[in-house]
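Bumping my old thread because nobody answered last time. Still need a sequence for this structure:
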């Protein structure tokens, strides 16, 4: 966990941020969406996001080092639903490929021509190999949808106990070409998140521009994507109300999408 500054609780309002590499801002050159929201509201950002973390790990981190806050953004349901191939130990794979996420396509490449070529070729080989191994040996998930729902509810409750209004941020788009089967799984986990959120849910998938709002892996949002996510969050009436602003009336388009999801 990192904090933007050391201040006495009560002197400045706080925004708590939970999530994985997307919330952490992997590949972002300017500001991740959590920082944009905090800056727009004039809040201090208390950042619990961490690359590759599930909601269970965020819950454990928060239990070990709890912080009070006014608003909490929980952006999980991204890492958990992805289908990952079983990798038998006898397979002659590079050791680094066995690390979490290291067979996924690269989100960006080096600016140096020779290294960029190598990275492009390796990225193509590893995600295609990952997809084949998933077909050949089956796949697994980091957490079942039931475990995800329970841990998400527990983290939500813990943040509320410490004074925060909790808004759950949905997963962004994901390309079925690079992550076969994960689009449907992500939808299942998203529905579980909406159950826990009880209306305080920010849908992201389908509301960003494919794929101009994303990095090359069609999974991690780029700077423009993070700005778009921040705008979606800042439109939420509970966010505006907490910040002392008047929420704008919801449009019919938003109401229709809410009923559909």
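Sorry it took so long. Here it is:
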């Amino acid at each position: 966990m990192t904090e933007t500054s050391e201040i006495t609780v009560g002197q400045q309002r706080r925004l708590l941020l939970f999530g994985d590499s997307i919330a952490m801002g992997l590949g972002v050159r300017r500001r991740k969406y959590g920082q944009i929201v905090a800056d727009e509201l004039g809040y201090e950002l208390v950042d619990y996001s961490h690359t590759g973390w599930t909601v269970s790990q965020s819950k454990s981190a928060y239990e070990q080092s709890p912080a009070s806050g006014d608003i909490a953004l929980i952006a999980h349901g991204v890492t958990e639903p992805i289908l990952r191939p079983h990798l038998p130990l006898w397979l002659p794979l590079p050791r680094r490929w066995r690390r979490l996420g290291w067979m996924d396509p690269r989100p960006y490449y080096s600016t140096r021509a020779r290294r960029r070529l190598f990275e492009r070729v390796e990225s193509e080989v590893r995600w295609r190999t990952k997809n084949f191994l998933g077909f050949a040996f089956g796949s697994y998930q980091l957490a079942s949808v039931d475990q995800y729902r329970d841990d998400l509810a527990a983290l939500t409750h813990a943040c509320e106990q410490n004074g925060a209004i909790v808004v759950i941020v949905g997963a962004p788009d994901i390309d079925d070409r690079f992550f076969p089967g994960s689009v449907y799984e992500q939808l299942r986990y998203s529905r579980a998140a909406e159950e826990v959120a009880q209306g305080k849910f920010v849908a992201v998938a389908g509301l960003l521009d494919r794929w101009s709002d994303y990095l090359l892996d069609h999974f991690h949002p780029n700077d423009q994507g993070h700005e778009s996510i921040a705008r979606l969050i800042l439109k939420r009436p509970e966010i505006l109300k907490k910040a002392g602003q008047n929420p704008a009336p919801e449009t019919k388009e938003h109401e229709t999408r809410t009923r559909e999801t």
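The radius of gyration is 19 Å. Let me know if any region looks off to you.
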